[in-house]
Write a structure and sequence with these properties.
heterodimer, A: alpha/beta, about 35% helix, B: Rossmann fold, Spore Coat Polysaccharide Biosynthesis Protein SpsA, Chain A
C-alpha cells in the first residue's frame, strides 16, 4: 500500500517504510477523542519492563483535528520511540485502523500489542504476555486480564484457552495476524475481536487468556454521562454480521426479529441500514466448539 | 532579673504548634504532675507551671543549670540518670507526664534510660520525647555533596551520640515496651535549617537541584521534618478491650494539617507479604476518573525489606499516581493504628480507606465526592461494595466468581446493631472528622472500622450512592482472615465489647444526632404501624370477600340440594308410573296369550297378523 509522506506526523523522522522504527513488539493504539486518557497511557507505557528486542509505539488517530494537537506533544516527551498517524480518511473504524498500523510494522516485528487508549498496562504486563506467547507457540492471540472490572471471561485454567480474545489489551502474533488477513474491516466497532478469535481457531491457531498479565481498563460503562447509543448500534450490527457470517442467513433474520421486538423502529432502521450495506461474507464454522453465539449479542458489554 | 541563658535554654511559645516546646505544652494535661528530664534552666517547666498549672520536678546533669532553674522557682535536682537509677532520684513519686525534650540523642544508652520510666507513670500517664530528624532533606543534600559537618547546635549538634528517624525512634520505643500513640512534627523546609550554609537568595547548583529532585521523587513525607515530638504509652499486656481499661480513645488531634481543596487522600493499609495484591490496589487508584487523588501507603507492622519493596513498587507509579509511602511505627497488632497514622498524614478535603487486597472501581471518587458536593449537609458518602471470590496466586488475585453486593441504604439505628457498610466503600470529609476528634479505636483488635463508622453516624449525615464503586476480594484459601490471626475469639469478644462500649448510652451523641436517631426510630415505628394497619385492613377486606363468597356458595349448594330432592321425587313418581305401566302390560300380554289359545281362527288370524306387523312377540314376563 502506498503511503503519502505528508499523511502522517512522526516523532522519529518517518518518510518511508525503511525508517519506520524497528522493534520486536509494536504497541498499537487507536485514538478517537482520547486526549483525556493520553498522558496517563504514556506514563504507563514509560514504566513497561523492557522486553528483548524492545518495543515501539504507534498511534492512529481516527479523529485528527481539534484537541488532537496535544497528542504529539504528550508522546514526544516519552522515553520510547513512537509514531503518530492522523487518519486522512476520517474515522475508518477500529479494526481497519489496527490493520493499517500492523501493515506498517517494521521487518523485525514479531508481536503487536493492541491497546485501548483508556487502558494502562501494569509494568510487567507486556513481559508476561510475551513470555506466554513464547511458551505457547500455536497461540495467535494472547489476552491480558482487565481489571478492576473484569469481563466475565470463560477460559480453561489449565490450558488458558478461550473462545475469543478482547482487543482492549491483546498481544497478537504478527505472522498469524498476516495469515488471517487482520481484522474484518466491515466490522466498524465491536465484535471484530470476536471474529478474529473465531477465525484463529478455524485456521488452527489458538486463543489464550493470561490472568497474570494485568491491564487497568477504565471501562467507559463507568462513565456517568456516557451516551451509549453508538455502542448499541455497532454492537447490534456486529452481532448481525457474526450471525450471518458463521450461522447463516436464518440466524441473522432471527436476530432482526428480536431487535424489532426490543428496540424503537427508528433504531432498528438505522441498524439494518448499516448491516444491509455490508458484503454478505460467509465462513464455514465446521461445528467448531469455540464458535458460540452470545444471546444478547453484546460480547464485551456484559459484565458482572 | 532574667537568668543567664545557657546553650540549651530555648524560649517557650506555648501557642506555637511549629515549635517543639509548643507541641509538648499542648500535650500536657492541665494540673498534671510532670517530670522534666533534662530540664536545663527550667524554661519549659516554668511555662508548664504558669500556663497549665502543672507541678514539675526537673532533673538535669548540669549543676549550673539546676541552680538557675531553682532561682526561677522550679523544684529541680542534679542527677546523671545513666549511672543513677531514676527510681531512686524521684523517691517513689509518680507522674502523669514524663518529658525528655531533646535528651535521648545525647545518651550512650537511650533505651536504658527510657525503659524504666514506665514504672514512674500513673495509670493514664505518658512519656513525651522530642528529637531531631536525621533524615531531613538538608542532611541528604549535605551528604549528596560529599560533606559532613557537625554544628554547635541543631540536628548535627556536636554532643549528639545517637541519631534517629521517626521509624528508628519508634523501633527503640517499641523495644522498650511502649506504643507510639502520637507523632507531631516541627517543619523546616528544604535549605531552611542550620545544616547548610546557604543564605537567602541562594542560587542552587545543578548537583543540588538534582539531589532535591531525587529526594522529592521518593515521595517521602518526612523530608521536611526538623524535629519530632512523640507521645509514648506503656503497652498493655494484652491488646484486647476490657471494660475497666478505657484508654480507648487516643488523644484527638487538631485540624492543623493544611487542607488542600478537592484532594481525595486514600489511606492504603498494607502489610508484609502482600505486594502482589498492593499492585492491583494502586493501579485501581490510577484508574479513578476523579482528578485529584493521592495515595498514602501506610506500611504496617512489616520488615524494613518489605517497606523497601513497597518503595520500589512506588517508582512504577511516577507520573501515574500521587503517592506517599510511610512506615507506621511498630505496635502490637492494633488494626486502628495504621489508619490513624494515615489520617494524620492527610491533607485532602476528602479521605477514604483501602486495604491492600481490595480495589476501587473507576467511578469511586466521582460518584462519592460528587454526592458530597451535592449534599453539603452530609459528611460521609458510601456506595455498593461488590464481593468477589478468587484464588490467591503467586502473582496476585485471580477472580473466580462474583458474590453478593453490600447495598444497604443508610439506616442510622441499624448501624448500631451491625455493620453493613464495608470500609472500602466510603468517602469522608476529613476536616469534620478531625474537628470532632474522631479517631480509630486502637484498643480494638478487630471491628475498628465499625467503631469508627458508629462514631461518625452518631454525629453526621450519611449519603448512600446506589452504584457499585469498589470490590471486596475474598480469597478462597481463607487467607483474608488468616492474615491477622485466624481465631474466632477476638471477633466475638470484640463484638460484645463494642456493643457495650458504643451502645446508644455511651456513645457521645450530640443533641442533633440524638434527635435524628430518635426521629429515625420514630419514622421506623410509624412506618411499621402504617404497614401493619394497611395489611390488617387488607386482610379484613380479604376475609370479608371470602366470607361473602362462602355464603354465596352455601346458598348455591342449598339450591342444588333442593333441586336434587325435587328430581329424586320426580324419579320416584316416574318409577311408580313405570310399575303401573308394567302391570298394565302384563295384563295385556296375558289377554293376548288367552286370545291366541282360542281355537277360533276368526279370532287368532287377525291377531297374529297384528303381532307380525308390530306388536312384540314376547312381552315382559
Amino acid at each position: 500500500m502506498a503511503r503519502p509522506a505528508a499523511a502522517y506526523h512522526a516523532h522519529v523522522s518517518v518518510t518511508d517504510g525503511d525508517t519506520w522504527p524497528r522493534a520486536r513488539v509494536q504497541i498499537q493504539v487507536v485514538l478517537y477523542h482520547s486526549e483525556r486518557w493520553l498522558s496517563q497511557l504514556v506514563a504507563g507505557l514509560r514504566h513497561l519492563t523492557p522486553v528483548d528486542g524492545g518495543f515501539t509505539v504507534a498511534f492512529w488517530d481516527n479523529h485528527p483535528g481539534t484537541g488532537s494537537g496535544a497528542v504529539p506533544e504528550v508522546v514526544a516527551d516519552a522515553a520510547f520511540t513512537s509514531v503518530w498517524l492522523p487518519s486522512s480518511r476520517g474515522n475508518i473504524g477500529f479494526g481497519a485502523a489496527h490493520n493499517a498500523l500492523a501493515a506498517r510494522a517494521g521487518p523485525g516485528c514479531e508481536y503487536l500489542l493492541l491497546l485501548n487508549p483508556d487502558a494502562v498496562p501494569q509494568y510487567d504486563c507486556l513481559e508476561r504476555l510475551v513470555a506466554a506467547a513464547e511458551l505457547n507457540t500455536t497461540a495467535a492471540l494472547i489476552e491480558a486480564a482487565q481489571f478492576p472490572i473484569e469481563h466475565p471471561k470463560a477460559y480453561d485454567p489449565a490450558t488458558l484457552e478461550t473462545n475469543w480474545c478482547s482487543a482492549a489489551c491483546l498481544l497478537v502474533r504478527r505472522a498469524a495476524f498476516e495469515e488471517l488477513g487482520g481484522f474484518d474491516e466491515a466490522l466498524f466497532l465491536y465484535c471484530e475481536d470476536v471474529d478474529l478469535g473465531w477465525r484463529s481457531w478455524l485456521s488452527g491457531w489458538r486463543c489464550i487468556y493470561v490472568p497474570s498479565a494485568r491491564c487497568l481498563h477504565v471501562t467507559e460503562d463507568q462513565d456517568l454521562a456516557k451516551d451509549r447509543s453508538a455502542e448499541l448500534l455497532h454492537s447490534a450490527v456486529g452481532h448481525l454480521r457474526l450471525r450471518r457470517k458463521y450461522f447463516g442467513e436464518e440466524a441473522a433474520v432471527e436476530y432482526r426479529e428480536e431487535l424489532r421486538q426490543h428496540l424503537a423502529p427508528s433504531a432498528v432502521e438505522e441498524i439494518l441500514a448499516l448491516f444491509d450495506g455490508l458484503p454478505p461474507t460467509t465462513v464455514d464454522r465446521r461445528q467448531d466448539p469455540h464458535i458460540v453465539l452470545q444471546p444478547e449479542g453484546i460480547y464485551a458489554a456484559t459484565r458482572w | 532579673m532574667p537568668p543567664p541563658a545557657g546553650k540549651y535554654d530555648f524560649a517557650v511559645d506555648p501557642g506555637n504548634r511549629n515549635t517543639t516546646y509548643g507541641l509538648i505544652c499542648d500535650r500536657v494535661p492541665r494540673g498534671a504532675a510532670v517530670l522534666d528530664i533534662g530540664c536545663a534552666s527550667g524554661n519549659l517547666a516554668l511555662a508548664l507551671e504558669r500556663h497549665r498549672g502543672c507541678r514539675v520536678l526537673g532533673i538535669d546533669i548540669d549543676p549550673d543549670a539546676v541552680t538557675v532553674a531553682r532561682s526561677q522557682g522550679i523544684d529541680a535536682v542534679v542527677a546523671d540518670l545513666t549511672v543513677q537509677p531514676v527510681l531512686e532520684v524521684v523517691a517513689g513519686r509518680r507522674f502523669d507526664v514524663i518529658i525528655m525534650a531533646d535528651v535521648l540523642e545525647h545518651l550512650v544508652d537511650p533505651a536504658g534510660v527510657l525503659a524504666p520510666l514506665a514504672a514512674l507513670l500513673t495509670p493514664e500517664g505518658r512519656v513525651l520525647c522530642s528529637f531531631p530528624n536525621i533524615t531531613h532533606i538538608d542532611i541528604q543534600l549535605m551528604l549528596a555533596q560529599d560533606q559532613w559537618r557537625t554544628r554547635p547546635a541543631g540536628i548535627l549538634d556536636q554532643t549528639h551520640l545517637r541519631f534517629f528517624s521517626a521509624a528508628s525512634f519508634s523501633e527503640m520505643a517499641f523495644a522498650c515496651g511502649y506504643d507510639v500513640t502520637a507523632i507531631e512534627r516541627v517543619i523546616l523546609p528544604a535549605l531552611g535549617t542550620e545544616v547548610l550554609d546557604y543564605g537567602k537568595g541562594l542560587r542552587l547548583g545543578t548537583a543540588e537541584v538534582a539531589a532535591l529532585e531525587a529526594v522529592a521523587r521518593q515521595g517521602n513525607a518526612n523530608r521536611e521534618v526538623y524535629q519530632y515530638v512523640v507521645e509514648l504509652h506503656p503497652a498493655p499486656e494484652r491488646h484486647r478491650p476490657s471494660p475497666g481499661l478505657d484508654h480507648a480513645h487516643p488523644t484527638p488531634r487538631d485540624a492543623s494539617n493544611p487542607q488542600i481543596a478537592g484532594l481525595l487522600d486514600v489511606v492504603v493499609r498494607t502489610t508484609e507479604g502482600r505486594l502482589r495484591y498492593l499492585k492491583d490496589a494502586l493501579y485501581s487508584l490510577v484508574g479513578l476518573t476523579y482528578p485529584a487523588v493521592r495515595a498514602i501507603v501506610c506500611v504496617d507492622n512489616s520488615s524494613s525489606a518489605y517497606a523497601e519493596a513497597v518503595r520500589e513498587l512506588a517508582v512504577h507509579f511516577q507520573g501515574l499516581l500521587d503517592l506517599v509511602v510511610t512506615e507506621v511505627p511498630p505496635h502490637h497488632e492494633q488494626r486502628g493504628r495504621p489508619l490513624n497514622w494515615g489520617l494524620d498524614q492527610a491533607h485532602g478535603e476528602y479521605i477514604s480507606f483501602l486495604d491492600d487486597d481490595d480495589v476501587y472501581y473507576p467511578s469511586f471518587g466521582d460518584r462519592l465526592v460528587g454526592r458530597l458536593r451535592e449534599h453539603p449537609e452530609a459528611t460521609v458518602a458510601y456506595g455498593i461494595g461488590q464481593v468477589v471470590r478468587g484464588d490467591s496466586t503467586e502473582w496476585g488475585f485471580r477472580t473466580v466468581s462474583h458474590d453478593r453486593r453490600y447495598a444497604e441504604p443508610f439506616d442510622r439505628a441499624g448501624l448500631f446493631l451491625e455493620n453493613y457498610i464495608p470500609f472500602n466503600t466510603l468517602v469522608v470529609r476529613r476536616a469534620a472528622v478531625v474537628e470532632a476528634g474522631i479517631r480509630f479505636d486502637e484498643s480494638l483488635p478487630v471491628y475498628e472500622d465499625w467503631a469508627f463508622l458508629r462514631e461518625l453516624a452518631a454525629r453526621f449525615e450519611f449519603e448512600f450512592v446506589d452504584a457499585p464503586i469498589s470490590e471486596y476480594r475474598l480469597r478462597t484459601d481463607g487467607s483474608n482472615a488468616a492474615s491477622r490471626g485466624s481465631a474466632v475469639e477476638p471477633w466475638t469478644t470484640t463484638l460484645a465489647d463494642i456493643r457495650h462500649r458504643y451502645g446508644a448510652h455511651t456513645v457521645r451523641l450530640s443533641e442533633g444526632a440524638l434527635a435524628a436517631l430518635a426521629e429515625s426510630y420514630r419514622d421506623a415505628e410509624a412506618r411499621h404501624l402504617a404497614e401493619a394497619e394497611t395489611s390488617e385492613a387488607r386482610h379484613r377486606a380479604e376475609g370479608d370477600a371470602l366470607r361473602a363468597e362462602g355464603d354465596a356458595l352455601r346458598a348455591e349448594g342449598d339450591a342444588h340440594r333442593a333441586e336434587g330432592d325435587a328430581l329424586r321425587a320426580e324419579i320416584g313418581a316416574l318409577k311408580a308410573e313405570i310399575d303401573a305401566l308394567r302391570g298394565e302390560l302384563v295384563g295385556t300380554k296375558t289377554l293376548i296369550r288367552v286370545l291366541l289359545s282360542s281355537r277360533s281362527w276368526r279370532l287368532t288370524r287377525p291377531l297374529r297378523r297384528l303381532l307380525r306387523s308390530g306388536l312384540p312377540e314376547k312381552g315382559p314376563d
